[in-house]
Specification:
Blueprint (H helix, E strand, L loop, with lengths): L12 H13 L8 H18 L10 E13 L6 E8 L5 E8 L7 E10 L2 E12 L4 E4 L3 E6 L2 E7 L4 H7 L9 E7 L3 E6 L4 E6 L2
Antiparallel strand pairs: 1-2, 1-3, 1-11, 3-4, 4-5, 5-6, 5-7, 6-9, 7-8, 9-10, 10-11
Helix pairs in contact: 1-2
């Protein structure tokens, strides 16, 4: 089933997330509070499970700017993991993730690039991805690091086993890999829960 973003609950999570995406792009704008945004993300996740929404890998392709994240913390009572406080990523730090597909037709394999820019320094990690469409899970790993200073590359090396690690990646069970579980994908923003339990909200790079 493909996405139907018409909210059936009285809480309009789609509108909240749309406002957050729009206001994040505007300087000195009033955004939805962190508490409201977390509520919207949790409602979106619940709706995706109830409606059994699935998204093709091609919907994720492109470059996305990290807008909002939550951490996790241990529950002292039960010993389990619960969501921590969420926060908007400060505008002076630009964090982007991009997904590219392989040249193979109908492939759910590709490449991820995660870049953190704090002028004049840029740190970029790249590696392979594999998408499991029935569960909206995107497994990934990083095997290349690039550091730039004033847009000039000063470090570009493989990390871990480099090419060998990439070839071996597709033989690894998803339980041993980092992954994102996407529960909302639109043309303007995407949202996922990471393997560690935290939530992340990205907006499309304009």
């Amino acid at each position: 089933m493909t996405a139907n973003l018409t909210p059936k609950a009285t809480f309009d999570f789609v509108n909240v997330l749309s406002q957050a995406a729009a206001k994040y792009r505007e300087p000195k704008s009033i955004r939805p509070s962190a508490e409201i945004l977390v509520k919207a993300l949790l409602q979106a996740e619940k709706t995706a499970k109830q409606q059994k929404l699935t998204y093709p890998f091609e919907f994720l392709l492109g470059k996305w700017q990290l807008c909002f994240v939550t951490g996790t913390k241990k529950n002292r009572g039960s010993g389990g993991i619960v969501l921590g406080n969420g926060f908007y990523v400060p505008k002076f730090i630009a964090i982007h993730v991009s997904f590219n597909a392989t040249l193979e037709q109908d492939s759910d394999r590709g490449e991820i690039a995660n870049q953190v820019e704090l002028n004049p320094v840029s740190l970029k990690l790249t590696g392979p991805v594999q998408y499991f469409g029935k569960k909206n899970l995107l497994a990934f790993d990083f095997n290349q690091m690039i550091i730039s200073l004033f847009s000039r590359v000063i470090y570009n090396r493989a990390i871990r086993a480099g090419k060998v690690q990439t070839e071996d990646f597709y033989n690894q069970p998803i339980a041993k890999l980092p992954f994102f579980g996407f529960f909302l994908v639109t043309e303007d923003f995407i949202a996922a829960r990471g393997r560690g339990g935290g939530l992340a909200f990205w907006i499309r790079e304009t």
